[in-house]
Fold:
Amino acid sequence: MAAVSRGKSLDRLMRSVHQWVWSDSERRLRKLLTFADVETDGGRDILRAAEVTPDPLLRRLYLEHAIDELRHGDLFRERGTELLRAQRTHRKVLLSGNPLPGGHGLDDLRIEGEPDDRLLAFLHVAEKAAAGRFTIYRELVDDDPRTRAIFEEILRDEVFHMNYTYTQLARVAPRTYRRHVWHARAKRLWNRYLRVAAAVAGAFSTVLLTAVYFVLLPPFAWLAKRTRRGEPIGWTPIARERQASPRSQY
Amino acid sequence: MKILGISAHYHDSAAALVVDGVPVCAVQEERLSRSKNDAAFPINAIEWCLDHAALEPADLDAVVFYERSMLKFERVLTSTLCAFPRSWGAFPHAIKNTLGEKVWVRGIIASQLGIPRSRILFTDHHASHAAAAFLASPSRRAAILTADGVGEWATLTVGTGERRADGQTDITLRREIRFPHSLGMLYSTMTAYLGFKVNEDEYKVMGLAAYGRPTMIDQVRRTVRQQADGSFTLAPEYFEFQTSAARSYSSKFIDLFGPPRDPYDPIDLDSSDGRRFADCAASVQRVLEDILVDIATRLRRETGLPDLCFGGGVALNGVANARLLAEAGFDRVFVPSAPGDAGCSLGAALYADRIYFRNPDRDVPDHPFWGPAVDASHLARAAREDGQAVEELGDAPLIERIADELAADRIVGWMDGACEFGPRALGHRSILAASHEPGMRDRLNREIKRREDFRPFAPIVTSEAADRFFDLPPGGARLARYMSGVFPVRPEWRPRLGAVTHVDGSARVQVLERDMAPRLHALLEAYGRRTGMPVLLNTSFNVAGEPIVTQALEGYMTYRRCGIDVLVGGNTLVSKRSTAASLKESGEWSSNSVAASTVG
Structure:
């Protein structure tokens, strides 16, 4: 539990960023509302795990776990909504998006076709990471007892989640459970790399396509606008031939 | 001839299988992947359809995709070019989105199913809607109207369909309104403005409209202008869906209607903002209805046909459908159980069968139950393992028992046979409850559905008793077969149908004929014998944000974590046992010898 109570090293390194997020009331409520969605989504994923597992004990545990996650989502949502109502008169702009991604760590969860041992290892690692991060968040909202109380309540559940996942992992895979945990950690790192790589590739392609847009497209845009001007508005007759061409994608 | 229809890549993907001219099965991908409105290539749905019919992909004579993807790409590209240079932000998103997967659909189908590309066919998006609406209806000759956000270029089409005496079928779409002029986009833009999810929450706008007054019709009419021939155009200065991937309404739209609603901000109908939002919803709803009624009235005069088949996402608007029936001059209006894009999979398969291959017409069974069936043995096993009370009962005692439970104000999860194809629970995957007490609506919202207070619950009534409780016009019962129309509750019954009567005295009623769902019909009658009203509250068997349950275990998991009192799957009945211990508290999970303290 020591690791949980201190928070993970990466999160400790990012403490100043976390502090920046939680120190502002607008960012705080956005973060809470984002957590609400992430916890709810995670709850649904775990519920799916309960539906597909052949193991009766795991089914019951997954169900309790899912109910916890869905309740956490409600707690975050209610608190976020309270803050939203309190701030309604002060807010001028609508923020969108999330100032810091990855609230809980249950993204990338793939249920279908995933054996219980790998799923349990994944859940264990994710819950542990979330517990570490929530520990830091709890400290950062000292000025807000209600939000702090929510983190405390959720942390108690997270400890149960990380413990039962580990214990059950040892039950279903007594010889390989440590390997599964390391594999889950490695996979989590790999997924983070993929996310970053995809984001970089996405940014790169956006820049490239924007350049194409301004360099290559202007003459075509002129032609398209000229053609559009000649088109009648309102009803357009439909050619029968178009409906009778089964192999054409045009 | 075996034809697989596929719809995918926009929202709510699905697969449907037609064998020798008759649908065999159809299912939305979301019902199997458990991801609401799943737009991914519907590989799970395809596999299930093939398994259900005991077919291999190689056995298929054709696979039909529901739209022409390159024509759609042309529209995306042309629209972006026409909006140059304001579309610079939307261009990279549109290109990545389209070139990433959507235009390669022929290759995706060929590689996923391992079939020759020559067997892969395409239909027009709106032809698929038209076929789903006309060929799945019992009408022999009908006018056809389709309307949605956008297909390839078309956003609304009108035409006719005919089943000829020689067995051949004709579907002729005569003319269309083209993008960006779109009733669906208008409604979706208001949906986004009101802080709801586009392509998902449009029905919330319809529900909210009943609380408002159409005081902003003039403003809405400035954004959509109707021409003398009934067609319409959207005023581009009010919309940004062509130029922005982030927002569909413009600053001028905000100037016109006021600040938009924050999605997280609850709608408080006692506040001025809440009333303004309700008025916006009522106004856009009224304008949508007026335009549709005008177009349909002209179509009726032009074709002289007594039946109208209405397809496309806009056909999910039950208030508009009821007005079409009442005012456009048609005797009957048919809306399929899945009028949206999911239903296009079935429409595309039927279109290929009747129009491309010229196969003779066959009657399509008039029910919506084309999905996976519930396996009660799975339910019984899971419930017993979980320490719940399980009973196996014959049909008659089960019906009587459930009627008793409902009469005692208990909430019942009801799973029976094959699941519905389409967005609505029509009696095979439903949550049922007493319909008389407004408190039941609050309880359902609080303990199960967790949804906005302003949204109404729908009733289900036997066809024999429907007219007694609801003011159904001629043809109303037919429209209400798939819950496609909103009709007034008779004033004298409104106080006694408090849980299902909306604020304006209306209800989106389902009129159930015995043949369609005999067990549920029997349940309604049994409930009627106890209460004098064979009317139940019928809402989809899911909780907010999740697809309707498909398998028994999904129903059981939903039942276990919300306020449903009794669960029925086939002939298995499960009752909630409050003594079932929490594993967390019992410590049963940790009986294993590995100590928790070793974590880490």
